[in-house]
Amino acid sequence: AKKLGRNNFQFYTPAMNEEALERVRIESALRNALERDEFVLHYQPQVELASGQIVGMEALIRWQHPELGMVPPVRFIGVAEDTGLIVPIGAWVLRTACAQNKAWLDAGLGRLRVAVNLSARQFAAPNLIAQIEAVLADTGLPPACLDIELTESLFMDDITVAVELLHSMKALGVSMSIDDFGTGYSSLSYLSRFPIDVLKIDRSFVSAINRDANDAALVSSIIALAHNLKLSVIAEGVETAEQLAYLRGHGCDEMQGYFFSKPVPAAEFEQMLRQRRRL
Ligand code: C2E
Ligand code: CA
Ligand code: CA
Ligand code: CA
Q1: Taking every annotated instance into account, which residue ranges of this chain make up the domain EAL (predicted)?
Q2: Which of 157, 244, 257, 261 is the most exposed place for a label (fewest CB within 10 A)?
Q3: 278 CA to centre of ligand 2 in angstroms
Q4: Nearest C-alpha to atom 20 of ligand 1 is from which residue?
Q5: Choice from 82, 117, 118, 181 to test ligand 1 binding pocket (greatest atom count within 8 A of CB)
Q6: Considering the entire predicted model, what is its pTM?
Q7: ipTM of the prediction greater than 0.90, yes or no
Q8: Which ligand sits nearest to residue 150's alpha carbon?
Q9: What is the whole-number distance in angstroms between the Cα of residue 181 and the centre of ligand 3?
């Protein structure tokens, strides 16, 4: 039992022990994962609704550990954040995604936009802008072919610093998306103040389109709001034809989700590009 204060004891249950143990196990394994080359990126297509064509992809990290097996990001991103390991891991993701996109560009497979998730730790790192600039220079990827995905929580600490950082990022020529839009607590006012390009509507709203009329109304309102602010909209987690029809009917720009494809390894993504797979 851990003493919390006078006469206040919190007892660990076996389940909590298990969780703590798992964290420790993951943390120590995570320390060697980069040098042992255990990470791989999967890519999930982003499809333009007007043309039905793949116009971009989100890079999503996968960790293949020899004993733990395939560890999903939900089980290690939090640990990586807490330990700061997300900074070198995130740098690897950025470089790998940009190099891959440049290879596809050079192979004549299209001028695609690759989206990379940015963590809070990376956002707070003093060399972020220089790092992105160096990766673009080293890989030769046109800046417009890189999209940085940010969550609303990144802006909570210091809004002035965030605005400045986003403007510096914008000056590099990359595009910027707000990820998981609608799940954060921040006010809508930042939408007009920040130089962002894309809103990604969170899967929780999209999945409720056919279940809940209020959620459906929220989705169409977000699309209208975004368009009024000259932002484009990507719907995340699209799984059914009904969801797609609704999004199309309300002028959503792009979709991403299992209905078209789950995230796949680079070789498989390349096949989709070569076959010119369409919605
Ligand atoms: P996210 O950025 O919101 O990514 C979307 C997640 O939804 C992905 O889960 C994706 O596989 C899943 N998804 C996509 N379409 C569908 C669908 O139609 N239905 C359902 N049920 N799920 C769908 P994943 O790959 O497990 O990643 C989970 C989270 O881990 C991501 O959420 C992101 O926050 C984080 N993450 C993944 N890769 C990275 C990374 O390289 N860096 C950082 N900082 N975070 C990452
Ligand atoms: Ca994302
Ligand atoms: Ca998301
Ligand atoms: Ca999410």
Answers
A1: 23-277
A2: 157
A3: 22
A4: 237
A5: 117
A6: 0.93
A7: yes
A8: 2
A9: 8
